[in-house]
Amino acid sequence: MAIDFSIFVEYGPRLLMGFWLTIKIVISAIILGMPWGLVLALGRRSRFFIPRLAATSFVEIFRNTPFIIQVFLFFYVLPFYGIRFPAEYVGTLALAAFGSAYFAEIIRGGIDAVSKGQLESARAIGMSDWQAMKNIVLPQTLSIILPPLTNQTLSLIKESAILSTITVNELTMSGIRVQGEIFRPFEVFIMVALLYWGLNESIAFLMRKIEKKANKGRTTNQNIAGKNTFISRGASR
Amino acid sequence: MKFDLSYTIEALPRLLEGATVTIQVALLGFLFSITLGTIIVLTRTTLNWRILNGIIAIYVSFIRGTPLMIQIFLVYYVLPVTGLNLGAFTSGILAITLNSAAFVSEILRGGLTSVPKGQFEAAKSLGVSGFALWGRVILPQTFIASIPPLVNEFTQVLKATALLSIITVVELLRVSQQIYSANYHPVEILSGTFVIYFLLCFFVSRGSVLLENHWRIRRA
Fold it and tell me: How many contacts does A have with B, using Cβ atoms within 8 A?
C-alpha cells in the first residue's frame, strides 16, 4: 500500500472546515462548562444538604458514565420532552455538562489546596464567606488549578470526536465522510489524527510556558501544582 | 410521550448480557495493557536505549494527543488494508490495549519513582538482580503504590469500551442500540444502559479503597 499524498492536498480543506467546528464547539463548551463547574464546586462545599447532594450527584453521574451515552441521551431525551436544537448545539451542551463535572472536581481540589488558615484569617478580619472566597481563596486557587484545567481542555478536544456519532460535522465526522467517498482509511484518519495531535501538543506547549511565567518565585504553589497534575489526570481520554 | 419503565424492564436481561461482554472486553483489554505497560516501563528503565525511548515517547504522546475513536478507526480500517484481517472484537481489544498501555506505562513510571532508591541498593548488596530484583522487589512495590490510579484507569477502560459499539462490537451500548432501533424507545432503553454503566464504574472506583486496604495488610 503506497501512501497517496495528493489526498492530503485535495481533501485537506474539507477536514480543516471540520477542524474549525471542533475548535468552536470546544471553546463554547468551556465557556459554558467552567462557570457551571464553579457553581458545582461551591455546591459540593456548601453547608446545606440539598445543594451538596445535587452537586455531588451531578458530578458523580457525569464522571462515572461513558461520554458517548451522555451524548445519546441528550440527543434523544431533549426531543422527547419537546425541546429541539440542531445537533451541534446538543453536542456542545453535552460536552459542557460532561466537562463541568470534571472542572468542578478540579476547582474543588484547588480550593482545598489553599490552606485553611487563609479562609479563617479572612473571616477573622470581618469578610463574609463569599468575600473571603472571591478575594482570598479563588485567586490563589487559580494558579494551582491551571495545569489540571489544561489537561481537561485537551481531554475535551479529544472527547469532542464522539459528537460525530450524532451527525455533528466536526473533524472526525468530516474524516468519516471523506473516507466513505474515497476508501483510503490510512491517509484520511492519519490526517485527522495529526490535526488533533498538533492542536493538543501546541496547547500543552503554550500552557507550560504560561505556567512557568505564572509560577516564577512562587515555589510553594508550584509544588502543589505539580502534585495536582499527577492526581487529577482523571479524564484522560 | 411519557416515560414507560416497562420497556426498560423488558430489555433488562439483554442489557445485562451486553454488560457481561463489556466487562469481558474491559478486563481483557486492561490485562493486556498492564502487560504491555509493564514491558514499556521495564525497557525504558533497564535497557534505556535512546532510539527506543524516543519511539516510546512518540507513541505515548500520540496516544494521549488523539481521540480514542480515531485510534479505533486506525486499527479497524487500516489493518485490513495491510492484509491483517482481525475482525471487530479483536481489533477493538487491540485498540483499547494500545490506548490504555500508554496511560498505564505513565502511571507505572510514576509508581516506580515512589520506590525508594535504597530498595535497589539493598537488593544489589544482597546479590539480588535481574528477574528476582524486578519481579520480587521492585515491581510489587510499584504496583501497590499505583493501585489508585490503576483502578481509575480501569474505569476509564470500562467507559472506553462503549466506543467499540461504533465498530460493531456487540457490547452493552450496541445491544441497547439494537433494542431501541427495533422498538423505537431510545430514551427508556438508553436510561437503563446509563444506569448499568454508572453502577459498574461507581462500584469499581469505590473498590479501589478495599483493594488498597487488602494490600496494605498483606504488606505489613
Answer: 117
